[in-house]
């Protein structure tokens, strides 16, 4: 069973956080939710409360097949400032394991830690504050995969992002089966079925 760490902080974006966790769990992944600091009670950007499984400090003692970061501001900023997560992300990437980030997090979490230095392309939320950070590698695609790094644009692409993460861990057939159960649009399903040929 593939293991995934989903990092979350106060003011992380609800849709992105929930979509990533939900899709991966539906697909048979073991998901661990971890947050900065010592208080595991987290209040997301629109007021939804969640309780993390553990702190990022505790998670730093573990190994994961993928580390995923939702966006939202200033939630992404809090994740980017966490020393334990930064170390984990750099180690994860250097070991050739999967890293995934959506919305603000590619620019605010991944870029400062050098995770995007060796990708050919990536994407992020459509704001100059974020686009300018990755402008030389910015792709118009909603979900981008490059050198074991998965990035995506925001809440509207969160399920697509989760499905691509699942496809990389459990295979495209499993991801397609989950997508059909979620009743995604035909365009999303077709993209998922053919994405392997493009990446």
Automatic annotation (TrEMBL):
Q: Which domain of life is it from?
A: Eukaryota
Q: Keywords in UniProt for this one?
A: Repeat
CDD domains xref list = GATase1_DJ-1 (cd03135)
Keyword Repeat attributed: yes
List this protein's GO terms for biological process.
glyoxal metabolic process
Annotated DJ-1/PfpI domain residues: 3-167
For this protein, the record's Gene3D superfamilies field holds: 3.40.50.880
Record flagged with keyword Repeat = yes
One Pfam family this sequence matches: DJ-1_PfpI
InterPro entries for this protein: Class_I_gatase-like, DJ-1, DJ-1/PfpI, Prot/Nucl_acid_deglycase
Recorded GO CC terms: cytoplasm
Q: Which NCBIfam families match?
A: not_thiJ
Concerning PANTHER family, the annotation shows: PARKINSON DISEASE PROTEIN 7 HOMOLOG (PTHR48094:SF12), PROTEIN/NUCLEIC ACID DEGLYCASE DJ-1-RELATED (PTHR48094)
The protein in question is named DJ-1/PfpI domain-containing protein
Q: Which taxonomic lineage does the organism of this UniProt entry have?
A: Eukaryota, Sar, Alveolata, Perkinsozoa, Perkinsea
């Amino acid at each position: 069973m593939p293991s995934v760490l989903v990092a979350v902080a106060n003011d992380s974006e609800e849709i992105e956080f929930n979509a990533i966790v939900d899709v991966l769990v539906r697909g048979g992944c073991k998901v661990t939710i971890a947050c900065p600091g010592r208080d595991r009670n987290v209040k997301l950007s629109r007021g939804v409360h969640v309780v993390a499984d553990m702190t990022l400090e505790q998670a730093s003692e573990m190994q994961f097949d993928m580390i995923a970061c939702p966006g939202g501001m200033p939630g992404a900023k809090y994740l980017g400032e966490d020393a334990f997560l930064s170390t984990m992300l750099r180690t994860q990437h250097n070991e050739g394991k999967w890293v995934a980030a959506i919305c603000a997090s590619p620019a605010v979490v991944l870029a400062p830690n050098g995770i995007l230095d060796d990708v050919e392309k990536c994407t992020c939320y459509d704001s100059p504050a974020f686009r300018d950070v990755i402008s030389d590698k910015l792709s118009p695609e909603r979900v981008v995969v490059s050198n074991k790094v998965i990035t995506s644009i925001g809440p509207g692409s969160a399920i697509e992002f989760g499905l691509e993460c699942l496809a990389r861990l459990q295979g495209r057939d499993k991801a397609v089966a989950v997508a059909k159960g979620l009743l995604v649009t035909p365009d999303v399903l077709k993209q998922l079925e053919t994405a392997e040929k493009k990446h």
